[in-house]
Amino acid sequence: MTRQYPTTTPAIPPQAPRARLFFVDNLRVFLTVLVVLHHVAVTYGNIPLWFYTEPAQDPTGGLLDLFVILNQTFFMGLFFLLAGYFVPGAVDRRGRRPFVRECLVRLGVPLLLFLVLLRPLVMAPAHADLLAADPDLSYWMLYLFSIDPGPLWFVEVLLVMSLVYVVVRGPGERRAAGADREVSRPAGSEPLRWFVPVVLFSVGLALVTFAWRFAFPAPYWPVVGLPSPGYLPQYAALFTVGVFAYRREWLTRLPNSAGWGGLAMAVLGLVSLAATLAVLGVGSLTPGSWQALAQILGRPSSPWVWWSCCWCSSEGCSTGATASWPSSPTTPSRSTCCTPWSWSRSGWR
User: Fold this and answer.
1) DSSP result, 328-345
2) CA–CA distance from 111 to each of 79, 156, 225 (Å)?
3) How far apart are CA 238 and CA 102, in angstroms?
4) Other CB atoms within 10 Å distance of the CB of residue 225
5) What is the pLDDT of residues 119-157, one digit of tens each?
6) CA 56 to each of CA 69, 79, 281: distance values in angstroms, whole numbers, following the listed order
């Protein structure tokens, strides 16, 4: 007699992995190059915001400072946009609790190791310099009262934003479960309306940034360790934009007209910002001043730079060449881009 075993309900098959966006890899390589150049400019410029500096003794230091100021307006914001773009998909695949555990391991552990192991070593030169003024200064007292994440501030902020996203997402998942439906990404086949939203976003972000810097004018936050807290509204806004971009497939729907228009506005905005800094001087960097308001409102470059960078990486600046660009295994080839990040056409796996 054959024994009958109760059948079990088969597990829900996991979602098929989405096609890799190779242009995002290209964009990340380009941004990484900007990070390296940014810190090189800080090292040899006149802005003492690095562990080791060799200020230039000629006018080239001013040019490096200008590059740092212009670059700061957009390059870290793009990192947060890309981070926000990939967080929803990661939570969709793993679930909220496994995602939190993975964040704590991948982001929290390196942050903790830096604070415990590397930070004491980095503080040694500063302690040696301060001993000349205060021979009784304890090394460990200096370490405890000046502790901050240093160059891992991005990891710290990204960890906080990721955890906040999980908390905010919770009620939406429960409502979706109660309605017996899935939290999924829409098809996003409708035309992308871009000009008015980008303009409104630019003006709104400028006003919020001005108010934020007036309320919190400190150029550095101890313990938290933010080297540029005045840009925190930008980072939070771009992370949020990245989340919506994933759900609505904005990065894969950028039209050519938007790309060229954004590129022109980005160049115009960066030039106008440099001119504003030259005319208004350092007063334009003082939080709460009318010069600061004029400088912020007069530089709509950042959103256009973000927009044009995403478009150039995904679509390319067509020069008539027809070499293939495998942005995904299933999409047709695209024209090559006349930019450095087009060198990685085969994808950075």
Assistant:
1) STTSPP----SSGGGGGT
2) 18, 7, 12
3) 22
4) 20
5) 888 887 777 777 777 777 787 777 777 788 888 999 999
6) 17, 29, 20
Residues 6+ apart with CB under 8 A from 35: 75
Nearest partner of 251 among 202, 316, 310, judged by Cα: 310
Measured CA to CA, the distance from residue 132 to residue 283 in angstroms comes to 34
Q: Rounded to an integer, what distance in angstroms lies between the CA atom of residue 281 and that of residue 268?
A: 19
CA dist., res. 198 & res. 286, Å (int)? 26
Please write the tens of the pLDDT for every residue from 152-197: 999 999 999 999 999 999 776 666 555 555 555 554 556 677 778 8
d(CA 29, CA 24): 9
Contact 295, 284 (CB under 8 A): yes
Q: Taking CA 155 as the corner, what is the angle to CA 150 and CA 157, rounded to the nearest 5 degrees? A: 95
Contact between 219 and 320 under an 8 Å Cβ cutoff? The reply is: no
Q: CB of 241 within 8 A of CB of 84?
A: yes
